[in-house]
Design goal:
61% strand, mainly beta, 26-stranded antiparallel beta barrel, elongated, 12-stranded antiparallel beta sheet
Length: 671
């Protein structure tokens, strides 16, 4: 019997498309052994093998079908309906009455053609009921099959159809061990609120502790984004323990943006103990307002800190809250050739522990770069800075408490020279560039007023050389005249993209530095030597290292190295930091000596192993390490991971924990 191809053309069949819409969403083409159209009832009946393809490309195959005028009724045998690229519903018979479609002796899968060994998973049922109004699939007497092997049976099972992007309901649970609280079973429940808003509520059942409740809320506005996460539990000791993290970003037009952030927890160890934030040293809450222009910007922010580390010790974060911090930068258009002006303003307030201080900084700079004969690059710059401080019972560097105003003025300037020398070639292009800068400023004893400041001191490195200021922060001042000089060599392969780079340099202070930190690398006169070296073959190998050598005997004082060997799936990554630490100029302390190692092994296209560790070589022990096995399939994913944490803090004692996760994927969406 000859097959007939039937096209739904509006001019020929004005109501046939509407009649078949409920069967397969605006069908475009019907191919069948025989097609009959009843003009009186405006219905379609096919005989033999039938295929229906809709506007979006979805298709249905069936035998001996009937589609009523308005689509309220559909009948057919041996139906297979493709709901996605790898998703189909296969049934012996299908009938439709209004919004309800009933399939008998049906099989559902989202793994059609994903695996040469067969469908990774299928669900068979005596009856499958689909409600078009609610977009839900209900399976009666379903059996869950993995590679044609029956695994689970349920009396009834319900899930949204693949056309649903968001649906309220339970998500796949996961399991993990905990820090001396037994096994944690996470049961997430997803709540769909609107196209732009949803939330996930999770009940975490612990076998040796009271339950934990988690909440994650997401909201996307037209020009804003809001994210909130939190948790709460009342443990067996009767303590309320909780945390809340929030981050909101609001676009205020083309040139402005506001950010609100909140990080708070009930105590110092809750986040670690329950596995939320690992070893985060402190939490930061506050807000930020950013204003942008073509030639400048203004940032105003405020910070309130919550310390999570044990009391005592020397920390690099402020001991008080920052209220407010306002910084503005403006750069003019060229006023002559390439010469331009830069204006900076900074307002900072720090309060805490019964003391407070406010600081206003103004800075104006003129910079003039020039390219001269032979490729010589000369840059001249002059600046003037004025600081005003208001102290309220603040502790000064002399140990006294002070309330009142203090000010200081700092003019400075620098002259920098560089000469890039190129040697182009067919294969390799080489560049060698000597560079020198001399900076002049008055020598002053007012390098620092108060003990509590925003600066963590100076640390000499290749990144510090040739910078406008060498201190981290604004409260500490540079002092006197100094020079920076160094040379860089680089080579670039024009064919493969391989790169080499070597840099070495030094700084020289012409005036004595006040209270020079023996670990900074700066000294009176010549500093230590700093440098970096790197190589990247742009394929499977990349390594870089920065170092500092003692100025007298070239002994190694500091080195940071990172490297990676391998591809995206199979790799070995290494990181190492070593620093010789002095208690004072003559007394050595414990060295900083820490290594990080990461490794990945791609066993097959779907199986992979990963491991990462942080090892304290000084103490000869792991700080932490984690690893796991991962399986990624087009239709599902699973992982088994462990984490070992050796830290000890108050009621938290590090141990080994495990986590198992499993999820299904339907046409690229995870469930």
């Amino acid at each position: 019997m000859r097959k007939t191809k039937f096209l739904f053309l509006a001019c020929v069949l004005p109501t046939a498309a509407a009649a078949a819409t409920s069967a397969l969403n605006e069908p475009k083409t019907i191919i069948a052994d025989k097609i009959e159209y009843d003009i009186k009832s405006e219905s379609i009946q096919t005989s033999g093998k039938t295929e229906i393809i809709n506007q979006s490309g979805q298709r249905m195959t069936l035998r001996d079908s009937y589609i009523s005028k308005d689509g309220s009724a559909l009948e057919g045998d041996d139906i297979k309906l493709w709901l996605g690229r790898h998703v189909y519903l296969d049934a012996k018979t299908v009938t439709r009455d209004g919004d309800i479609t009933i399939a008998k002796d049906a099989t559902f899968t989202a793994c059609d053609g994903c695996d040469p060994y067969g469908n990774a998973w299928t669900i068979s049922a005596t009856t499958v009921r689909h409600n078009m109004a609610t977009r839900m699939l209900r399976f009666y007497n379903p059996v869950y099959w993995i590679y044609n092997v029956p695994v689970f049976w349920f009396p009834i099972f319900e899930m949204p159809d693949p056309g649903v992007k968001h649906k309220t309901g339970f998500l796949m649970p996961d399991f993990e061990s905990t820090n001396k609280m037994g096994t944690m079973i996470n049961i997430p429940f997803y709540v769909y609120l609107s196209e732009t808003q949803d939330l996930t509520v999770t009940l975490a059942y612990l076998t040796q502790e009271n339950p934990l409740f988690k909440l994650e809320h997401r909201l996307n506005g037209e020009h804003s984004q809001y994210r909130t996460r939190g948790s709460f539990t009342r443990n067996k000791d009767g303590d309320n323990r909780w945390h809340i993290f929030n981050n909101d970003v609001i676009e205020l037009g083309e040139y402005a943006r506001a950010t609100v952030f909140l990080e708070r927890t009930s105590d110092k160890t809750y986040l670690q103990k329950y596995g939320f934030y690992n070893s985060q040293p402190y939490l930061d809450s506050g807000g930020r307002l950013e204003l942008f222009g073509q030639s400048g910007y203004v940032v105003a922010d405020a910070h309130v800190f919550q310390e999570l580390r044990s009391t005592g010790g020397r920390y690099s974060t402020p001991s008080g809250d920052i209220l407010p911090n306002i910084r503005g930068v403006y750069q003019s258009a060229p006023i002559y050739e390439e010469t331009y002006l830069t204006f900076n303003a900074d307002v900072l307030g720090i309060s805490g522990s019964g003391t407070a201080s406010q600081r206003v900084v103004g800075d104006a700079r003129i910079t003039s770069p020039w390219t001269l004969w032979g490729g010589n690059r000369i840059t001249a710059s002059m600046s003037a800075r004025y600081d005003v401080y208001n102290f309220d019972h603040a502790e000064m560097v002399d140990g006294q408490k002070f309330t009142g105003l203090k000010n200081r003025f700092l003019p400075s300037g620098y002259l920098e020279w560089g000469l890039p020398l190129y040697r182009p070639a067919t294969t390799w292009t080489q560049v060698i560039e000597p560079r020198a800068r001399i900076t002049a400023m008055p020598h002053t004893s007012k390098d620092q007023f108060a003990l509590n400041n925003d600066s963590a001191g100076a640390f000499l490195s290749d990144a510090t050389l040739f910078s406008d200021k060498r201190f981290a922060g604004l409260d500490l001042w540079e002092n006197g005249n100094f020079a920076d000089y160094g040379v860089r060599w680089a080579a670039f392969n024009n064919i493969s993209g391989k790169t080499f780079e070597v840099f070495a340099g030094q700084s020289y202070d012409f005036t004595d530095r006040a209270d020079t930190d023996p670990n900074s690398g700066f000294h009176n006169g010549a500093s230590d030597y700093v440098g970096r070296i790197g190589y990247n073959n742009m394929k499977w190998f990349d390594i870089s290292s920065r170092f500092r050598l003692d100025r007298t005997d070239l002994s190694l004082r500091h080195m940071e190295t990172t490297g990676r060997i391998g591809s995206a799936g199979t790799y070995l990554s290494l990181g190492h930091i070593w620093s010789q630490r002095f208690i004072d100029a003559q007394t050595l302390g414990d060295d900083t000596n820490e290594a990080t190692v990461g490794a990945g092994l791609k066993l097959t296209d779907r199986w992979a192993l990963q491991w990462n560790g942080i090892y304290n070589l000084t103490a000869d022990e792991f700080h932490s390490h984690t690893g796991g096995i991962f399986y990624t399939h087009p239709c599902y994913y699973m992982s088994l991971q462990y984490r070992r944490d050796n830290s000890i803090k108050e009621d938290y004692v590090g141990t080994t924990t495990f986590q198992f996760r499993f999820g299904m994927s339907i046409d690229g969406q995870h469930y």
